[in-house]
């Protein structure tokens, strides 16, 4: 019986073992293939780690960029009107001086000239910043530029569809409409 068990165990061992049975192949080629696979795996792992590092760095850089631009945007919003306000402070000073003159001087012509100077200065400052008044009276009514407040009968046939009066001026800022003109249209 023992011989029979020994033969069975030997057969099992032979079937379980993965031996190189090729007489022409040497054992070192299988080892070289295994080592090459291990080296390839290590190489792929290191490349994957490098890519992960690059990805994390890019994500961190992008988050910093978002924070920086959000901060710059908030600063820009807070100081957006600073330039125009600083320009209008000179006009405000002129208004204060005109108010003092109105209280202390009874000469109406001098007061009128002073107020007119302040108005002209306001217009000049706004014009320098790109603000331009819209010319609407006697022009064709245009829904892109005008807001009709009311319609009245046309005095003659040639005035039909034209702007007769301007209730509130329209304005452009650098050739872009910032306020529509409120007008009376001939019907």
Please write out the topology.
Elements: H1 2-16, H2 27-78, H3 82-104, H4 108-128, E1 131-133, E2 146-152, E3 163-168, E4 171-173, E5 176-179, E6 181-186
Parallel strand pairs: 2-6
Antiparallel strand pairs: 1-4, 3-6, 4-5
Helix pairs in contact: 3-4
Structural summary, described in words:
The protein is of the alpha+beta class and 187 residues long. Among the domains are: 56-129, no CATH class; 132-187, Nucleotide Exchange Factor Grpe, Chain A, domain 2, CATH 2.30.22. Helix content is 59%, strand content 16%. It has helices at residues 2-16, 27-78, 82-104, 108-128, and strands spanning 131-133, 146-152, 163-168, 171-173, 176-179, 181-186. Strands 1-4-5 form a three-stranded antiparallel sheet. It has a three-stranded mixed sheet with strand order 2-6-3, with no helix packed on it. Helix 3 (82-104) packs antiparallel against helix 4 (108-128). The longest helix has 52 residues, at 27-78. The protein is elongated and about 115 Å long. The N and C termini lie far apart (124 Å). Mean pLDDT is 83; it is low at 13-20.
Task: Note the main attributes of this structure.
16% strand; alpha+beta; Nucleotide Exchange Factor Grpe, Chain A, domain 2; 187 residues; 4 helices; three-stranded antiparallel sheet
In terms of DSSP E residues, the strand content is 15-25%
**Termini distance?**
124 Å
Largest sheet: 3 strands, antiparallel
The residue ranges in which pLDDT falls below 50 over 5 or more consecutive positions are 13-20
Helix content: 55-70%
Give average pLDDT, whole number: 83
H/E element string?
A: HHHHEEEEEE
Read across the widest sheet, the strand sequence of neighbours is 1-4-5
* Shape by Cα distribution: elongated
How many helical elements? 4
Quick one: how many beta strands? 6
Rg of Cα set: 44 Å
* Helix/strand/pairing category: alpha+beta
């Amino acid at each position: 019986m023992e011989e029979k068990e020994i033969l069975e165990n030997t057969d099992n061992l032979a079937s379980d073992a993965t031996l190189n049975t090729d007489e022409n192949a040497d054992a070192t080629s299988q080892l070289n293939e295994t080592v090459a696979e291990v080296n390839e795996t290590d190489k792929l792992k290191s490349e994957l780690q490098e890519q992960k590092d690059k990805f994390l760095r890019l994500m961190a850089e992008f988050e910093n960029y978002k924070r920086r631009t959000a901060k710059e945007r908030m600063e820009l919003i807070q100081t957006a009107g600073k330039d125009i306000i600083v320009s209008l402070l000179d006009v405000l000073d002129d208004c204060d001086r005109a108010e003092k003159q109105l209280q202390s001087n009874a000469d109406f012509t001098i007061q009128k000239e002073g107020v007119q100077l302040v108005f002209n200065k306001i217009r000049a400052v706004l014009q320098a910043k790109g603000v331009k008044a819209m010319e609407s009276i006697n022009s064709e009514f245009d829904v892109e530029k005008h807001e009709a407040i009311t319609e009245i009968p046309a005095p003659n046939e040639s005035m039909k569809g034209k702007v007769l009066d301007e209730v509130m001026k329209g304005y452009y800022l650098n050739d872009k409409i910032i306020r529509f003109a409120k007008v009376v249209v001939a019907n």
